[in-house]
Write a structure and sequence with these properties.
Elements lengths: L1 E3 L2 H18 L13 H18 L2 H5 L1 H7 L2 E3 L3 H18 L4 H4 L6 H11 L4 H50 L7 H52 L4 H9 L4 H19 L1
Antiparallel strand pairs: 1-2
Helix pairs in contact: 2-8, 2-9, 5-9, 5-10, 7-9, 8-9
């Protein structure tokens, strides 16, 4: 089950708060309002959207909302819980046979785990199971990369459109050098478009694309553990050996924490 990842909104909010602090603490006469320029906003946002429309098809554009939403979610699946699940499946498979595992899947909501276990129950060869599930991982990675490409391209286009706005402002300023009253507004367009484009790229789009890539890598890592677990259960590995094998994927900190929890549980039971 996915829950909200509070770090993404906190990071974006903190970034804008720091910008606001820098603007307001400067003591300028215009303050925050001097950084609001409608023409600059329209150049960056409008140009960025136009470039994305040219670069991607309609179906990919429609996915943008879903992709952005994923950056604000996190997967609560625990590695320890995943290992314990396969240890339990292994124990039941050795005790009652592989067919008994179908009843264990009632409480499992992950379709990837369900698919792997059902393949094992059907008696598919381990190599074939590995190939089928690895192909699904590859397809998932390509889908994620395709969706993430929109955010990555937005991070590339935003500063470029900021520079385009800067050029527009400079051209307007040079064409009206005889009129001092136009120098300020034109210079504001020139500088603020670069400011808007750079902020959007480096505070929103590029970090968001990085988080999505990290989430994809994490999901691939979990699915690889699932494959090892499914093959281990099907081959009839001893549950303790399977647990040791899957625990190799845990970090030292997680392994230490797990050992401490087991020690506390044994101490309580002995008492």
């Amino acid at each position: 089950m996915k829950k909200r990842d509070i770090l993404t909104p906190i990071g974006i909010t903190l970034g804008f708060v720091m910008l606001m602090f820098g603007i307001l603490s400067s003591g300028g006469s215009g303050g925050f309002l001097s950084f609001l320029q409608l023409s600059s906003i329209l150049i960056v946002i409008g140009g960025l959207f136009a470039a994305l429309l040219i670069n991607f098809n309609l179906e990919q554009i429609k996915l943008t909302r879903h992709v952005v939403k994923e950056a604000f979610n996190k997967n609560e699946q625990s590695l320890n819980d995943l290992i314990e699940l396969f240890v339990r499946l292994s124990e039941r498979a050795r005790r009652e046979g592989l067919l008994a595992l179908e009843n264990e899947l009632d409480d499992v909501t992950d379709p990837f785990i369900n698919k792997g276990v059902l393949l094992a129950v059907d008696g598919i060869e381990p190599e074939v199971i590995n190939d089928i599930m690895s192909a699904e991982i590859t397809a998932m990675e390509e889908r994620h990369q395709s969706g993430r490409a929109i955010i990555e391209k937005a991070g590339e286009y935003a500063p470029a459109w900021g520079m385009i706005g800067t050029l527009i402002g400079l051209v307007l300023m040079l064409n009206n050098l005889t009129d001092p009253t136009t120098l300020g507004p034109n210079m504001a367009v020139a500088l603020l478009t670069t400011f808007y484009g750079t902020v959007l790229a480096n505070l929103v789009f590029i970090p968001m694309a990085g988080k999505l890539e990290n989430k994809t890598n994490e999901e691939i890592f979990l699915k690889q553990i699932v494959i090892e677990g499914v093959i281990g259960v099907q081959s009839g590995q001893n549950p303790r050996i399977l647990k040791e094998k899957l625990s190799a994927f845990l970090s030292k900190e997680m392994t230490k924490k797990d050992s401490e929890e087991e020690y506390m549980e044994e101490t309580i039971n002995e008492a």
